[in-house]
Amino acid sequence: MSVEKTKILLIGSGGVGTIASYALEYAGKSEVTSVLRSDYNKVTEKGFSIDSCDYGQIDSFRPSHIAKSVEDSLRYGPFEYILVVTKSVPEVGSMVDVIAPAVSDNTAIVLIQNGIGIEGEVITKFPKNAVLSGVSMIGSSNIDSHINHEAPDSLKVGVFESNKAVKDVTQAVCKKFVEIYSNDKNSCVYDESVKFTRWRKLVYNATLNSVCAITGVDSGRLEVFGGTDSIIRKAMREVLAVAKSDGVELPEDVIDFMIRSDDPVYYAPSMLIDVHKGNLMEVEVISGNAVRIAEKNGVSAPYLTLLYELLKVIQKKTMEKKGLLTVPKERPVPK
Ligand SMILES: NC(=O)C1=CN([C@@H]2O[C@H](COP(=O)(O)OP(=O)(O)OC[C@H]3O[C@@H](n4cnc5c(N)ncnc54)[C@H](OP(=O)(O)O)[C@@H]3O)[C@@H](O)[C@H]2O)C=CC1
Ligand SMILES: CC(C)(CO)C(=O)C(=O)O
Fold first, then answer.
1. Same domain for 19 and 105?
2. 282 CB less than 6 Å from ligand 1?
3. Any idea where the Ketopantoate reductase N-terminal domain is (predicted)?
4. CB count, 10 Å around CB of 264?
5. Which of 70, 74, 157, 176 has a CA between 20 and 30 Å from the CA of residue 218?
């Protein structure tokens, strides 16, 4: 007797999302529909090519269904889970309206995205739905529909503390997702404390992502060139202090764990890939929110603050290039 597969909608088939869709299809318990934009034509014709440290060389991967938009995906629903694996850039737009047409009473929304404070708008818009956190340690990029997956997929999935949907139900929904995502090649576990896990991950992202994006070097070169000791360790210590002020006590050894987590490759963090691709970066959720919490709680964080200010300038440069911001023809000067 064949068991009906769980229907999953994926928005954001980049480095992380495509490996997530592959992991789910490979595990065999779900049927994934991916909404593709820039990759739509190439992938419908040829599929994604994948070079994966977990799954090997895959010449052509297509999920069960491919759709051009969320509206177009509805014919493959209703969906039990919607995975949001886009870059989180709230200053230019939100995903809540994008996913809304596919959200029904029984849909769980899983945010597999870096950063802190990413869930507020989704929980406000869908107060009765389970909203789950996915924190991924993986190294994966998508360049022109080719996925280069360099560091093993390790995913923690938990319930956002502020998600008021009936707790037991939400936990069960979360544990089911862990079960259908897990396979013999990856690691996926239930996350007991989303807040702790997100602050822990931020130790890497707020520092290494930011400095690599600003300097244009990967994390290996940053260390060889001296920046890890001169900047990263100090900025990481600040993240620990800010997390503490927010009620999360991280162990000191997380600093060395994160610094060593890309060994032995010259690894380009996702924010550096954004710079290379001319894309917007996750400045506010990775850097801005931490700096705002530091300010609110009176924690000194000069390194994080400077990194944030520099990232904001780079972000505006990208926004101008993309036509999202217009600089006055005549330079405004103080009168
Ligand atoms: N890359 C990594 O190794 C890691 C990344 N992360 C986190 O995972 C998340 C995803 O990152 P990553 O995979 O690198 O991102 P990518 O930039 O590789 O991919 C994002 C994808 O989202 C798509 N997208 C954006 N908006 C929409 C939309 N409205 N509808 C459909 N598709 C959309 C983009 O499509 P299009 O091309 O059309 O713009 C793109 O394919 C981020 O929060 C990141 O911080 C976490 C751990 C590691
Ligand atoms: C920590 C790391 C490098 C991989 O999980 C990441 O989150 C990123 O590239 O943004």
1. yes
2. yes
3. 8-161
4. 7
5. 157
Asked whether residue 102 falls in the same domain as residue 34, the answer is yes
In sequence order, what are the beta bridge partners of 61?
Answer: 48
Of 143, 171, 192, the one marking the end of a domain is 192
Instruction: State whether 202 and 187 are in the same domain.
Output: no
Q: In this predicted model, what pLDDT tens digit does every residue of 245-258 receive, in sequence order?
A: 999 999 999 999 99
Q: Residue 268 sits in which domain range? A: 196-321
- Let me know how long the chain is: 335
* 233-290 tens-digit pLDDT: 999 999 999 999 999 999 999 999 999 999 999 999 999 999 999 999 999 999 999 9
Q: Report the alpha-carbon distance of residue 21 to residue 12 in Å, rounded.
A: 10
Does residue 268 come out as left (phi exceeding 0), alpha (psi in the -120 to 50 range) or beta? beta
pTM listed for this prediction:
0.96
Total domain count for the chain? Answer: 2
Q: What is the CATH number of the domain that holds 292?
A: 1.10.1040.10
CB 287 near ligand 1, within 6 Å: no
ipTM above threshold 0.95:
yes
Going from the Cα of 285 to the center of ligand 1, the distance in angstroms, rounded, reads: 14
Q: Which ligand is nearest to the CA of 200?
A: 2
- How far does the centroid of ligand 1 lie from the alpha carbon of residue 84, in Å? 9
Specify the DSSP class assigned to residue 62: -
